[in-house]
Structure formats: structure tokens, C-alpha cells
Design brief:
The complex is a heterodimer of chains A (about 900) and B (about 300).
Chain A lengths: L2 E4 L2 E4 L8 H8 L18 E4 L2 E4 L12 E3 L11 H8 L9 H19 L6 H7 L10 H12 L15 H6 L14 E7 L5 E7 L1 H4 L4 E6 L6 E2 L5 E7 L2 H10 L1 E6 L5 H5 L17 E2 L10 E2 L2 E5 L6 H13 L6 E7 L2 E2 L7 E7 L2 E6 L4 H11 L7 E4 L15 H13 L3 E4 L2 H4 L5 E2 L1 E10 L5 E13 L1 E2 L15 E10 L13 H18 L4 H8 L3 H11 L2 H4 L11 E11 L3 E2 L4 E7 L2 E5 L9 H13 L6 E4 L16 H23 L11 H8 L3 E6 L19 H15 L2 E2 L5 E11 L4 E12 L6 H20 L31 E5 L22 H13 L10 H13 L1
Chain B lengths: L2 H4 L5 E3 L5 H7 L6 E3 L8 E3 L5 E4 L4 H6 L1 H6 L1 H9 L3 H6 L2 H5 L24 H4 L20 H8 L3 E4 L7 H5 L17 E6 L6 E8 L10 E10 L2 E10 L6 E2 L1 H7 L6 H10 L12 H18 L1
Parallel strand pairs in B: 1-2
Antiparallel strand pairs in B: 3-4, 4-6, 5-6, 7-8, 8-9, 9-10
Chain lengths: ~900, ~300
């Protein structure tokens, strides 16, 4: 038997030639800091040093490590943190943290190498990008990673202790943070899911016996719906638990069943044809999934078309009549276009995963989820278990972006297999599953018509959206255009186009980016027709007082003032600047409760919320610390456990707005309780009276529920749903009833200015700079808010330039199931980035803070489109703006 | 179980495993595994006449970083530096790069049958071939994935195997008409080394790939080029493109335009026009010819600049 040295210790290597180093590291040695993400050497999450050089352990045969020294993230900074680790902590160069170990291992090697050759000088940005080009971060922490690596190389963190703005940063840079995929119980089995290879079929005679009879198999369960139908490739059929993954994979291959294939239809265009096979018969429509964060209103169905959903239209017929008349009259001010957006996958780096375990009649499930409390309730309901006997835990979650809000099949499979096997079971989706069947932002076709008056006012517009929702419904794109740019009439129509593709899911501002992509380009085009600066036109058409301030900020940017326009440019490279606006609703969740305690002389804040990389722990710690004049590190924050007091789900940008107010209420209660219980008052003139009081305090516990907001002092400030009349009120009421979400007063807003360079030879768009103006109230955690904004920018760049799910048009199988074919942005794609926060406007919210996650990403794609138009004179209508599309569009113009 | 996996699988060599490991995990590769990595055939040797011999197990990183190699064969070094990621380049070998399997998303998917998995047809041809060939030379529409192969082609380098000497890239990879394999090696034949001929006096060379993102992406189209310019005239030109055909392609028509012509932007533009000569794009791949056109201009203008 051969051996390697790992983190200074000798460890045996398996004789099996198939063994890969990552599996030895994670499974045999339990060093779970090293993460498996892409399995194809693209993302670098599994990076370890082999004799000091970074390599991807997911592709490295274990035997290649024989006689060599392997260093994992756990072996870096053991005696004292490596400067790179400290820099990542101090500069907040991480969010969910799942990619962080790989970045740390690589960046530490780079930093050591760089300093040996160059001393304490900061490397240029492109050197850092090249060195880290084998790593991907989905949260988009690149901006701070650049800074952290440069500063570590420059010696800024030598021998210095650092304080991280992110509470759990140390655990994430050392590999100590444990995610669901890292959970290991004694006797734990591996579960895998058998999935449909057919896009539409009825499954009968499911025979699990051959699987159950195989060695090492402990359980096999059916996952078929009661109608036995599978309606997309990848639909779950059954699941098996075995002692190892290879055994479970062999076992699912042994499962037998009969299938009666039905005609299938794939995608937006095919499913709209009159002779298209119908995916859902009337009785089955309730089986469709939901792509929005809230419930939807009923809508008519015609074959695979669900809609029109036009409740948010305002004098729709009038709008249509005016637009028809303008079309007939060839009104030169009438802006019309058909835009297309592609399907965007969440591509969480931690795949959907669950580990279920029964202890007598108590069920504990570790889930990679955005909603520990709600998932606990759903599990209890589904399996008719008392709420006190189900516990859901998510200490750390490797990204969610909307895809991990529901009770997923991985969790259902883990629970049912665990119950059948009477042993703990872990189900971790592989990358192909993660990139094909866990949901997505639906592709859509967007038809927009917009008519200004001759005087330059906005008269009317219409937006019709057809969304490619797979076996799901409830896309809300066009409706969102009701709440921005008031007009005399608006026709806003949403359709779901159902086909035999996996179901879409909510994704960061569901419906927002596609709506903005169409509308913000139409507004930009209107400005051209009216010969007006696009900011001047928006200031005229958009009365929102907060966005008015953001427009003013944007119009003062040098990059905006110095833009040249297409007419003044020639040659290979063209530069352009674009602007777009966006908004999102301010949601909060009633019932959100924060418990605050003094335990052993220390403050402890607890709530059943989770941190998916957004910085929830820090938001709570900062809020508490500020009130007691302490440091955030003085506050212990307990989250990620459904046994804590009810907390909100991490969706709808509602965490900050749901937990800061009850935290403040609990602080007020606790202060009174501490003072009352104090054995003696603090010393006269003490500069830290609360620190002294808390240290001396007996154990105390208080808790507070999310209070209602105050009445806004600004006249006219109200829930934006009121703008949509009684239907808006009804929508708000339904959201509260069915989704436990309240739409508060005021509108979180974003104004995005983007500068691009277009390479007209190779069809590539490079974003040169991003200037993000955001109004989300007061910042509960400023550094982390900036990180969120940067992440939203790079995700929006991915949406605009690179990302598209690709499918086989005949079989309906997703082809872009690997990270090399589903192209998320890398570090070199992150432009220099500047954020401007306007902190006013939410004084009626206790604490004054609302969420940031969604609003920040909405205007990216139209801002980029408008910048390309500015650079080249060409308006591209379909994202992603890949080289193939750009080059065709450029050619079309040359030919014309 | 689909047909591809049910049929008997051929044995495969494993060097660093940077291509193979992913296919082992997914189950696309299921034949016997033969580890071949050894300390022999590693490194770069120089003969007295100035030719270089590069062992098959030499890593891509070594080829990219070797100063003497970069001075003599800058197109080869730049190709090596431009492929994959730093971690992959550290492990991956020259021989493995030349003999790697297709990156086609149908081929790589264990649930789909295709020619390269003993199936009956190419599902990409009638399906989604966004990244497919623009020179449709055979039944399979996947471009050859080896960046180094285009560099070997442009340098007229030869390949030595454990059985044969002095193979050209055409000998090694075929002419693109064979859909079921990515190379024309015999069963269990192994690449041992490549031999680089003596560079021409005053030659310049370069490499560039067209991609959508900034770094670390499989090329949509890539180009390796060598030129000799004397007295303002192209005396010699060799262009080899990857990403556009089942094998790396010499752009002979473009070379013909260049050779003997004045080294000017106008000549380069004319050559770029000829780059797509003989192309047969698929419905989704016409854009690759525009990118090829752009790459020829880009690489040649930089070499002449």
C-alpha cells in the first residue's frame, strides 16, 4: 500500500486505481474543507496543493499522490493564519463560502510564489485573474478577492490579527465550516435517485426488488407521483440507499419498470404550436410547479399556454387601441421590439443535498435550504409528524439564489430512504442533476410597444411575456411593469408556456430581470427617438423620489458625462455606456421572532433563519452590538436550526427587513431586564456600561416578534401594490395569506451604469466598469451589503453575456449539465466596481433597513444592452450576448 | 441502460487523468484502465541540429514556461499557456492533450448514445450543435478538442509512438471522416514524444482563441500561426485552426494569399477572407467562420505589428 503525506501526516492511499484524491480526502480522511462541485476541473473548489502546486483533486487519481505532500485548506495557516486567509476575512472576499477553500489554497500558493519573486508589491489585477482563472464563485465575491489577494501579496496582513465583517468568515477560510454535504453520521448510507430518461411517459410495474436484492443496498423507495407520470427528462422515479454511492448507482440501474411513452413537446416555440402535444390534462394542472415567490391568481389554459394573466393591466384595451393607432399612423416615436432572454440556472456550488436521520420517532434533517423553519413545517405536514419531532438544520448553505426554498426531492428521498433503511441517509445531487432539474429562471419572449407623446411624456405601453416555464407555471414578468413608469394606460400580459422540460423555480427577483431587459431597452430607445439623454427621460417618466436621487447621482458620473456614442467611433474596439433602472418590492415576514439572551455573561441572539451567503449572522450581530455599544464579535448568533424561534425564509429579500425590527425590539426588552436584574449599576463614567452590566448579569431571556412598521412620514409613501388598485390590494392579501409575506411601503431601487468595450472582430463584450446606485435603506452590515451588490452585478453580467441552459430539442435532455457548458462568470469577467448607497427612504421600518439581494441584479442586462447600443449603434435583442449573436448582428448591419 | 454503456468498452490509457477522470466518474469511460504515467518521456531534449524533442509526459505547464522552447517555438508555448486552467496545465501532459477525447456535450453525457460511444448516429447533427464544427468533414460534428494538435500541425512537428515514427497530425488524428474516434492510434499504441523541426530564420508565431468569457473556456475557434516576413513581404505562412473541424485544419487558401504578398493590413484582410474557404457550416455554426476571420486578422496583425 502506498502513502501520501497530507497536512504533514502520513496517510494510506487505496489500491483501487479508480479512486480519486478528492474522495480519499473527504470520505476516508474526513477533511471536508475540500469541496466537490463540478467534478470536471472547471471550478477549482476541490483544489489542493500537491508538493506545493495547486491541482484539482476531483480529477487527480489518488495514486498520483503516492509519495507526495498534499496540503488541503485544513493544512493552511495551522500555526497562524496565512496572510491570504486573513485578507479574505478582512476584505470580505467570500459569501456562501463553498468555493472559498479552493480559492484559499490557490491564492496562498500564488501569494507565496509572488512574494518570493517580487517581494511586498501588489500584483496587477490581470496577474491575479490569471492565477485564479481555474476557480468559480457563484455568489460573485470576485471584487473583494482581487483586493484581498493584492493586499496579502503586498504584506498588509503579515503578523496582524484581523476582524472580519462576516461573523463566520474564519470558519469559511479554514475549511471548518460544515455544509450539508459534509455531514457524516455513523452508519450513514448514500442515496441516489433514478430519473426518467423520457420527457413524457407513464411508468407502471415499478419493480424495486432487483435493487433491494443487491449487496450493500439498504432501501429502495418509489418517488413516482400517484399518476405514475413523468413529464420531463430527469423526473424522479425511485431512490436507493446503499453503503456507498457506486453501489447505489449500480442498484438504480437494476430497477425495472414498464413505460408507455407519450408525445412530448420541448420549449417555448414548439409548445405554442396548435398541434403540440398537451403536457397537462385539465385534471393534472395542479401538478405544475411554481416559478414565483408568491402564489398566483387563477388563469385560463389553452393547451400548453396558461394565460393571459393580465390583472396588473391598467386600461389595457385603451393601451392597445392607442398603440394600434400609432402603428397604423407609423408614428416615429412608437418603440416596438421582441426581446428574448435565456434560461438561467442558479448553479449553486453546493448542490441540493439532505441528510436524514431518525432517532426513535424524532427526525433530524440537515438540508441545504433557504428556509429551515418553513421546511420543518412542510416535512411535519407531509409525513404527519408532530412539529416538535422534526428538526431541520443548515449551519452553512453553499448558495441558493431562490432554488432552495421548497421541500426538494433530495430531502424527500433522504427522509423516505432513511425511514425504510432505519439508518441515516445522505442524498447529494450530482452536477448534472444540479444544472438540469433543480429549477431555473425561465427563458422568455417579451414583446414591448411603448408610445411617448409628441411632447415627450409617456402615454402608454404594452408588454407581453411568454415564459418557458417547463412543467411549472406562474411566471410574473409583464405584471411587474405596472409599478414603474406611470402611463395613461398599460397592457401587461403574462403567459406561461408549459412543455416537457424540468420545472422553473424562483430565481433572485423572479420576473424582474426579464421585465427590465425589455422595458429598460424600450425606454432607452424612446430617449433616442426623442433625442433626450436617457437619464433625463427617466427623471421625467419615473416619479419615484428615491430613484430620482439615484438618477441624479448617475448623471454626475464621469463615465456617463464623457460617453461618446457610436457615431464618433470606428475601428475594431468600440466603447459604450448604458444605464438602466430597477426596483423590487420590500417584503417582510410576519411572525419572525428573535430571542435575545444573556448566557454566562455573553449576549446570544437566536432565530430560525439561515445564512445562504448573504451575511445574516452579521446583520443580527451588528444590530445587537450597535445598540449595546459592543463589537459584533461579542454577540453569539445562533441560526440555521428550526428549533430556534421562528425565522423568515431567505427569499424575497426579506431576511434583513424581517429580523432587524424584532432584534431591536428584543434589545429594548433585554436592556430593561438587564438593568432590573443588575446587582449594581455600572461604574460612574464607565466607557462600556453595557459590557459591564452584561458581564455581571444573571442569565436572562427575552424574545420579540416582528412589529409592524410605523406610518411613513413622507406623504404618499405606501405599498407600491396600491398603485395597482384593488387588484394590487388583493395580490398583497394573497401573498400574506398563502406566503406569509407582507409588502411594505417604499420601493427598494437600483440604477445601474455600465461601460462596455465591444470587440467587433471576435464578438466579445467586456464590461469595463460597473457603477451601481442602490437604495435599500440604512445598511445593517455595510461591507456585506457591498459584497451582495458586487455579487448581483457579476450574476447580472453572467445573465447578459454568458449564461444559457442548452437542451436537446428532440429528447428534452439538458445538455449544459456541466460547469464547462453552463458558463458562469469567472474572476477575470468582474469589472472594476463602485457602489453608491442612498440610505434614506425607509425610516418607517424599525432600523430603517430592507433587503438588497434581488433589486441589485435586476437592471444589469438592460444596462449592458444599452451600453452595447451606445458603442455600436446596434440594439441586440436576445441574451446572452454571446460572440455568435454579436457577430451576426454586426454582420447584419454591415450588410444592410 | 442505454446502448452505449451496454456494449463492450475499450481499454483506455491514463496519464494525468485530467480528461479521463471525469469520464470515469460519469461512466462514459468504462473499459479497463491502464496507467502509463512514468518519469520516462518527460522533458525537453535538444539535438545538435536545433530540433527539440518533447516527451509525451511533459506537462503543458512545462511547455508554456520553458524559456528556450518559447524562444524557438512561441506559437507552441502560447498555445500551451492559453489552454485550460493553471491547475490543469500543471498536471496535463502533451501526449494526453493530443489523445484526449471530444468535449461534445452529447458524448460527455452518459445517458446519450453517439458515434463515439459505438452508437449509430450523431445526435448533435440534428440536435443542438452550438459548439459544433463549421467544416463538416465527417459523420461526427464535434470539433477536435486538442489545442496542442493545432500547434503541432502549424509547426510541421512529428509524433513518435511506441510503434511508429514521424507521424504527422493527419497520421495521428485522421482526416475528420472517422466519426467514432478522436485519433487514429492503433489499439494500445502510445504516443512517446513529438519532434519540433528547426525553426525558420526570423519566423514569428502566435496563438489566440475566441471565447465568450475572459479566460478559462474551451475555444469557440482557435488559431496558431507562423509567419516569416522579409523585406516587407510574407515569405512563409502557416495557419492552423482548432474548434472548427473534427481535426485541426491548415488554412491553405489563406496561406496562399499571404505567401509572397506584401505584409500589409490589406493582405491580411484578404487572407482572412479566404480562411473559411471550403467550409461547410452547420445551421448553428456559421458564426465560427466569422470568428475565424477575426482571429486570422487578430493574430497576423499582432505578429506584423
Amino acid at each position: 500500500m502506498s502513502t501520501m503525506t497530507i497536512n504533514g501526516r502520513t496517510a494510506p492511499l487505496p489500491d483501487d486505481p479508480e479512486a480519486l484524491l478528492i474522495d480519499v480526502i473527504r470520505d476516508d480522511l474526513g477533511l471536508t474543507g475540500t469541496k466537490l462541485v463540478c467534478g470536471s476541473g472547471v471550478c477549482g473548489a476541490c483544489t489542493v496543493q500537491l508538493d506545493g502546486a495547486p491541482v484539482v483533486s476531483c480529477l487527480l487519481p489518488a495514486r498520483a499522490a503516492a509519495g507526495k505532500a498534499v496540503t488541503t485548506v485544513e493544512g493552511i495557516g495551522v500555526e497562524a493564519l496565512h496572510p491570504v486567509q486573513k485578507a479574505f476575512m478582512a476584505d470580505d472576499a467570500l459569501q456562501c463560502g463553498f468555493c472559498t477553500p479552493g480559492f484559499i489554497v490557490e491564492a496562498a500558493a500564488f501569494c507565496d510564489r509572488w512574494r518570493a519573486a517580487n517581494g511586498n508589491t501588489a500584483p496587477p489585477r490581470d496577474e491575479i485573474a490569471a492565477a485564479l482563472s481555474g476557480h468559480l464563485c457563484r455568489c460573485g465575491a470576485y471584487d473583494n478577492i482581487f483586493r484581498a489577494v493584492a493586499e496579502a501579496c503586498a504584506g498588509r496582513f503579515d503578523g496582524r490579527e484581523v476582524i472580519a465583517p462576516r461573523l463566520e468568515a474564519r470558519d469559511k477560510v479554514t475549511g471548518a465550516a460544515r455544509y450539508t454535504v459534509d455531514i457524516h453520521h455513523d452508519g450513514q448510507l448514500e442515496g441516489v435517485i433514478l430519473r426518467s430518461a423520457q420527457a413524457h411517459a407513464k411508468i407502471t410495474n415499478l419493480d424495486l426488488a432487483p435493487a433491494r436484492a443487491m449487496a450493500g443496498v439498504a432501501a429502495a423507495v418509489s418517488l413516482l407521483a400517484d399518476d405514475g407520470m413523468v413529464r420531463f427528462v430527469g423526473a424522479p422515479i425511485a431512490a436507493v440507499a446503499a453503503t456507498d454511492r457506486a453501489g447505489a448507482l449500480r442498484a438504480i440501474a437494476a430497477i425495472r419498470f414498464s413505460s408507455e411513452e407519450k408525445p412530448a413537446v420541448i420549449g417555448l416555440d414548439a409548445a405554442r404550436k396548435t398541434d403540440a402535444p398537451v403536457v397537462f390534462e385539465k385534471k393534472d394542472r395542479r401538478r405544475a410547479g411554481n416559478v414565483s415567490e408568491g402564489g398566483g391568481a387563477p388563469a385560463p389554459w389553452h393547451g400548453n399556454l396558461r394565460g393571459p394573466s393580465d390583472g396588473f393591466s391598467d386600461k389595457g384595451k385603451q393601451a392597445r387601441a392607442w398603440l394600434d393607432a400609432a402603428r397604423k399612423a407609423r408614428d416615429p416615436l412608437l418603440v416596438e421590439g421582441t426581446f428574448r432572454v435565456a434560461t438561467q440556472q442558479h448553479a449553486c456550488l453546493e448542490p441540493h443535498a439532505a441528510v436524514a436521520r431518525f432517532d426513535d420517532d424524532h427526525l433530524t434533517v440537515h438540508v441545504s435550504t433557504q428556509a429551515v423553519f418553513e421546511i420543518k413545517e412542510k416535512i411535519a405536514k407531509r409525513y404527519k409528524l408532530p412539529h416538535g419531532k422534526v428538526r431541520v438544520i443548515a449551519d452553512h448553505v453553499g448558495g441558493g439564489f431562490g432554488s432552495k426554498g421548497a421541500l426538494g426531492i433530495e430531502t424527500i428521498a433522504a427522509i423516505e430512504l432513511s425511514r425504510a433503511a432505519k439508518a441515516p441517509v445522505r442524498v447529494v445531487l450530482d452536477r448534472d442533476e444540479e444544472l438540469s432539474v433543480t429549477g431555473y429562471r425561465p427563458a422568455a419572449e417579451l414583446k414591448v410597444s411603448l408610445l411617448p407623446t409628441a411632447q415627450g411624456a409617456l402615454k402608454t405601453f404594452s408588454l407581453t411575456a411568454h415564459a418557458d416555464t417547463g412543467v411549472a407555471t406562474n411566471s410574473t414578468i409583464a405584471a411587474l411593469a405596472r409599478l414603474i413608469y406611470p402611463a395613461e394606460a398599460k397592457e401587461l400580459v403574462d403567459f406561461d408556456v408549459v412543455s416537457n422540460l424540468p420545472p422553473g423555480a424562483p430565481f433572485r427577483g423572479p420576473g424582474g430581470p426579464p421585465m427590465a431587459f425589455a422595458l429598460e431597452q424600450a425606454v432607452d430607445e424612446a430617449a433616442r427617438r426623442l433625442a433626450l439623454d436617457p437619464i433625463v427621460l427617466r427623471r421625467r417618466w419615473d416619479p419615484d423620489p428615491i430613484r430620482q436621487r439615484l438618477y441624479e447621482w448617475a448623471s454626475g458620473l464621469d463615465v456617463w458625462r464623457n460617453r461618446k456614442g457610436a457615431a464618433e467611433q470606428s475601428g475594431r474596439y468600440r466603447r459604450g455606456v448604458g444605464i438602466a433602472a430597477g426596483y423590487w418590492l420590500y417584503f417582510w415576514q410576519p411572525g419572525s421572532t428573535v430571542e435575545l439572551a444573556v448566557k454566562g455573561g455573553r449576549l446570544v441572539a437566536s432565530t430560525a433563519v439561515q445564512d445562504i451567503g448573504t451575511g445574516t449572522r452579521s446583520v443580527i450581530a451588528n444590530t445587537v452590538a450597535k445598540e449595546f455599544a459592543l463589537d459584533p464579535q461579542d454577540v453569539e448568533v445562533r441560526i440555521g436550526d428550526s428549533e430556534l424561534p421562528e425565522g423568515p425564509g431567505s427569499g424575497g429579500s426579506r431576511v434583513t427587513s424581517s429580523i432587524v425590527p424584532p432584534t431591536l425590539a428584543a434589545v429594548a426588552q433585554l436592556k430593561t431586564a438587564i438593568e432590573r436584574a443588575a446587582p449594581r449599576p455600572p461604574q460612574q463614567g464607565s466607557n462600556a456600561p453595557w459590557r459591564e452590566l452584561i458581564a455581571a448579569s444573571p442569565d436572562l431571556v427575552v424574545s420579540a416578534e416582528r412589529p409592524k412598521d410605523a406610518k411613513p412620514a413622507t406623504p404618499g409613501l405606501r405599498s407600491p401594490l396600491k398603485e395597482a388598485g384593488w387588484k394590487g390590494t388583493l395580490f398583497g392579501w394573497m401573498l400574506r395569506l398563502f406566503n406569509n409575506m407582507v409588502v411594505g411601503a417604499g420601493v427598494p431601487s437600483a440604477v445601474q451604469v455600465i461601460e462596455v468595450e465591444v470587440d467587433t472582430w471576435l464578438g466579445r463584450v467586456r464590461v469595463l466598469g460597473a457603477h451601481t446606485g442602490l437604495a435599500i435603506g440604512r445598511l445593517a452590515a455595510p461591507e456585506l451589503a457591498k459584497s451582495q451588490a458586487a455579487g448581483a452585478v457579476i450574476q447580472g453580467i453572467g445573465y447578459a453575456l454568458y449564461e444559457a441552459r442548452e437542451t436537446d430539442p428532440h429528447s428534452g435532455r439538458v445538455l449544459s449539465g456541466s460547469m464547462e457548458d453552463y458558463r458562469i462568470p469567472g474572476i477575470a469577467d468582474m469589472p472594476p466596481f463602485e457602489v453608491h448607497f442612498d440610505e434614506g427612504g425607509f425610516d418607517h421600518v424599525p432600523g430603517g433597513s430592507v433587503g438588497i439581494g434581488e433589486v441589485a441584479t435586476i437592471p444589469l442586462s438592460p444596462a449592458i444592452a444599452n451600453a452595447i447600443r451606445d458603442a455600436t449603434g446596434i440594439r441586440l435583442t436576445e441574451i446572452p450576448f454571446r460572440p455568435d449573436r454579436l457577430i451576426s448582428a454586426l454582420k447584419g448591419r454591415a450588410a444592410a | 441502460m442505454n446502448g452505449a454503456l451496454a456494449k463492450k468498452a475499450a481499454p483506455e490509457f491514463r496519464a494525468a487523468g485530467t480528461d479521463l477522470s471525469e469520464r470515469r466518474r460519469s461512466g462514459v469511460s468504462r473499459g479497463p484502465l491502464i496507467d502509463i504515467m512514468s518519469a520516462d518521456d518527460t522533458g525537453i531534449g535538444w539535438a545538435a541540429n536545433g530540433t527539440a524533442t518533447i516527451g509525451a509526459f511533459t506537462t503543458i505547464e512545462t511547455i508554456a514556461a520553458d524559456g528556450r522552447l518559447a524562444a524557438a517555438y512561441p506559437g507552441l508555448a502560447a498555445s500551451a499557456a492559453g489552454l485550460a486552467t493553471p491547475q490543469i496545465r500543471h498536471l496535463a501532459t502533451l501526449g494526453g492533450n493530443l489523445a484526449q477525447r471530444s468535449r461534445c456535450w452529447y458524448f460527455r453525457n452518459p445517458h446519450i448514445d453517439c458515434l463515439k460511444k459505438s452508437g449509430d448516429g450523431c445526435p448533435a447533427r440534428a440536435g443542438n450543435h452550438l459548439y459544433g464544427v463549421a467544416f463538416d468533414l465527417g459523420p461526427c460534428v464535434a470539433p477536435h478538442p486538442s489545442t496542442m494538435a493545432a500547434a503541432v500541425l502549424v509547426y510541421d512537428a512529428t509524433i513518435v509512438t511506441d510503434r511508429r515514427d514521424a507521424l504527422s497530425i493527419a497520421d495521428l488524428l485522421g482526416d475528420g471522416r472517422c466519426g467514432w474516434s478522436d485519433h487514429a492510434l492503433q489499439e494500445s499504441e502510445m504516443i512517446k514524444s513529438i519532434t519540433m523541426p528547426v525553426p525558420r530564420d526570423g519566423e514569428r508565431a502566435g496563438y489566440r482563441r475566441a471565447i465568450s468569457r475572459s479566460l478559462a473556456e474551451w475555444p469557440l475557434v482557435e488559431l496558431c500561426a507562423r509567419i516569416v516576413v522579409e523585406d516587407g513581404v510574407f515569405r512563409f505562412a502557416r495557419l492552423a485552426a482548432g474548434g472548427i473541424a473534427p481535426v485541426p485544419l491548415r488554412l491553405a487558401a489563406a496561406e496562399a494569399v499571404l505567401t509572397g504578398a506584401v505584409a500589409s493590413a490589406a493582405t491580411i484582410a484578404k487572407a482572412a477572407q479566404q480562411a473559411a474557404s471550403g467550409a461547410k457550416p452547420l445551421p448553428q455554426t456559421g458564426y465560427k467562420l466569422d470568428l475565424l476571420h477575426g482571429l486570422v486578422r487578430d493574430v497576423l496583425e499582432r505578429l506584423c505589428g
